[in-house]
Design brief:
The complex is a heterodimer of chains A (115) and B (115).
Chain A (H helix, E strand, L loop, with lengths): L2 E3 L4 E5 L4 E3 L2 E3 L5 E8 L6 E7 L7 E2 L2 E6 L4 E6 L8 E9 L6 E3 L3 E6 L1
Parallel strand pairs in A: 2-12
Antiparallel strand pairs in A: 1-4, 3-9, 5-6, 5-10, 7-8, 8-9, 10-11, 10-12
Chain B lengths: L4 E3 L2 E4 L5 E6 L6 E7 L6 E7 L2 E4 L8 E4 L6 E5 L8 E8 L9 E2 L3 E5 L1
Parallel strand pairs in B: 2-11
Antiparallel strand pairs in B: 1-3, 3-8, 4-5, 4-9, 5-6, 7-8, 9-10, 9-11
Classes of the chains: A mainly beta (115), B mainly beta (115).
Chain lengths: 115, 115
């Protein structure tokens, strides 16, 4: 069974600095998708960024980028120029490309932004 | 465009009482998901609907949980009777179901406390 591991329960970063959130996953499949979701306090969970496993190029969305290492099964999220609004729980997630579309989430990393 | 709507936002009940949660997905979204999110954990899928059909309910505890999606739009998740361990956030999400990369849009969730 696929698993997603986020080893950092909490992290803090100074406003305007860069922070990297770690994620590793375990799968025997070769074709899948990886996601980072953001869940602000008392607000909806939203998709931040996604990566197709067959693509070598790392996905980028404005200040958010990923470092996808397929062989190492690693999928870290880098947030540049951190802003107060980035404070949230961040969940790494996995989804098989071939079976049903159940998303498997990690336990999350709570990110604090220090002013 | 209105997002996924859930009600109530908060619910406190005593154990053994019944409780129901309601979800209105984004207009036009065929796929609807119910997730359970325990404190400090990522969401776990309970049930997925394609229109009015439950296509994945393998994680739904059927002895006390039930769900329905009449007319393929709104959905209700029910627990009867509730147990202390059911205290959690219940998230609803919807998607267009265009493919595996289809984005799931989450509602704000219902926080259930069972006393």
């Amino acid at each position: 069974a696929q698993t997603v591991t986020q080893s950092q329960p909490e992290m803090s970063v100074q406003e305007a600095e860069t922070v990297t959130l770690s994620c590793t996953y375990d799968t025997s499949e070769s074709d899948y998708y990886l996601f980072w979701y953001k869940q602000p306090p008392s607000r909806q969970m939203i998709l931040v960024i996604r990566q197709e496993a067959y693509k070598q190029q790392n996905a980028t969305e404005n200040r958010f980028s990923v470092n996808f290492q397929k062989a190492a099964k690693s999928f870290s999220l880098k947030i540049s120029d951190s802003q107060l609004g980035d404070a949230a729980m961040y969940f790494c997630a996995y989804r098989s490309a071939h079976r049903d579309d159940k998303i498997i989430f990690g336990k999350g990393t709570r990110l604090h932004i220090l002013p | 465009e209105a997002g996924v709507v859930q009600s109530p936002r908060y619910k406190i009940i005593e154990k053994k009482q019944p409780v129901a949660f309601w979800c209105n997905p984004i207009s036009g979204h065929n796929t609807l998901y119910w997730y359970l999110q325990n404190l400090g954990q990522g969401p776990e899928l309970l049930i997925r609907y394609e229109n009015e059909e439950a296509v994945d309910d393998s994680q739904l505890p059927k002895d006390r949980f039930s769900a329905e999606r009449l007319k393929g739009v709104d959905s209700t998740l029910k627990i009867q009777p509730a147990e202390l361990g059911d205290s959690a956030v219940y998230l609803c999400a919807s998607s267009l179901r265009r493919g595996p990369l289809d984005t799931q849009y989450f509602g704000p969730g219902t926080r259930l406390t069972v006393l």
